[in-house]
Design brief:
By secondary structure, the chain is α/β, with parallel strands linked by helices. Helices cover 44% and strands 12% of the residues. It is built from eleven helices and seven strands. Strand 6, helix 10 and strand 7 form a beta-alpha-beta unit. Helix 3 runs parallel beside helix 4.
C-alpha cells in the first residue's frame, strides 16, 4: 500500500486542480466542467504518480503515452500537464478558448507539444491507444500506453473494436481508465444507451478488469502499483465509478453541468466548499 504522505499530497494536488478548473470555468468561459471534475482524481494519480514523461523531452522514445479519449475533458488534461511542468498555468487562464490559443475546448496535438493525439470525436481514443501499444510491443519497447475514456463514449462501436483488438494482440502494455459517472451530455447513460454490465463486457472481450471508486486516491494508487508487467498478455481496464461535478454540490450528478461557466461570487463559494471538505477530511485522518 502507498504511504499516507503520498496519498495526502495527491489529494492536495487534486484539490488544487479542482479549484483551478473552476477558475478556468469563470475566467476562460465555457468549460466542460462536470466531466473535468469527475476525472480530477484519476488524472491526478495518472500524471503525478503513474506516467513516466519528461516535459523537457516531449519526444523521448521511452516515455509513457497518454490518450485523453474523452477530449472534452481537456481542462483536466491542461491542468495536469501544467502541474507536471509542460507549460505555465497562467497561459491557460489567459488564452483558453480564445482565437489563436494552444488551449482549445479539445486538445490539439499540432498546437501543444506533449499531447499525443488530437481528440474530441468520441469513441476513437481506445483504438488509437491500441495502435500505440501494438507498435511498442512490435518494437519491444517497455513503456505503457494509458487512455482515459468516458462511459458515454462506450456507446460507440469503435470502442469495442479496439477492445477486441487489444485482447487479440495481447497488449498487456495497455491500460484504460473508464470515467464511469453515469451521465452524458443530456441525461443518464442508462436511459440513453445502457452499457451495463460494463465490467463483464470488458472481461468477455479478454481484459483484466478492476472496479473501484474513482475518487479514492489510495485505491487508484494501489491499482497503479499492482498493474501487471507490460509483458503480460491481457490489457487492463480500470472502471472508475465517479460523480459528475464532484466536489461542488449543485453540480454533482447534474447533466446540466456537462458544460457551463460560473460568475465571481459562485467561484468563491465553490472554492470555499472544496476547501471545507478537504479540511474536514484531514481531521478524520488518524
Amino acid at each position: 500500500m502507498p504511504d499516507q504522505q503520498t496519498i495526502e499530497h495527491l489529494k492536495d494536488k487534486a484539490l488544487e486542480m479542482r479549484k483551478n478548473l473552476l477558475k478556468l470555468c469563470h475566467y476562460g468561459g465555457w468549460l466542460h466542467v462536470g466531466g473535468d471534475l469527475s476525472i480530477t482524481d484519476v488524472m491526478t494519480v495518472i500524471f503525478e504518480y503513474m506516467l513516466h514523461v519528461d516535459p523537457a523531452r516531449v519526444d523521448w522514445e521511452e516515455r509513457d503515452r497518454f490518450i485523453l479519449s474523452k477530449g472534452h475533458g481537456a481542462g483536466a488534461l491542461y491542468m495536469s500537464m501544467a502541474n507536471k511542468g509542460f507549460f505555465e498555468p497562467k497561459e491557460i487562464f489567459r488564452t483558453y478558448g480564445k482565437l489563436g490559443t494552444r488551449f482549445g475546448m479539445h486538445p490539439c496535438r499540432d498546437e501543444l507539444p506533449g499531447v499525443e493525439m488530437s481528440t474530441g470525436s468520441l469513441g476513437h481514443g481506445l483504438s488509437i491507444a491500441v495502435g500505440l501499444a501494438l507498435s511498442a510491443k512490435l518494437k519491444k519497447q517497455a513503456h505503457r500506453v494509458v487512455a482515459v475514456m468516458g462511459d458515454g463514449e462506450c456507446d460507440e462501436g469503435t470502442v469495442w473494436e479496439g477492445a477486441m483488438a487489444a485482447a487479440h494482440y495481447k497488449l498487456g502494455n495497455l491500460t484504460a481508465f473508464v470515467d464511469k459517472n453515469g451521465l452524458s451530455l443530456d441525461g443518464f447513460t442508462k436511459d440513453i444507451m445502457n452499457i451495463e454490465p460494463l465490467d463483464e463486457k470488458f472481461s468477455s472481450f479478454g481484459w483484466n478488469v478492476v472496479n473501484l471508486d474513482g475518487h479514492d486516491v489510495a485505491a487508484l494508487v494501489d491499482v497503479v502499483d499492482n498493474l501487471p508487467p507490460v509483458t503480460t498478455e491481457k490489457p487492463t481496464v480500470v472502471i472508475a465509478k465517479t460523480v459528475k461535478g464532484k466536489g461542488v454540490a449543485f453540480m454533482e450528478n447534474n447533466y446540466k453541468w456537462h458544460a457551463g461557466t460560473v460568475d465571481e461570487e459562485t467561484l468563491k463559494e465553490c472554492c470555499a466548499e472544496l476547501d471545507t471538505k478537504r479540511e474536514s477530511e484531514r481531521t478524520l485522518q488518524p
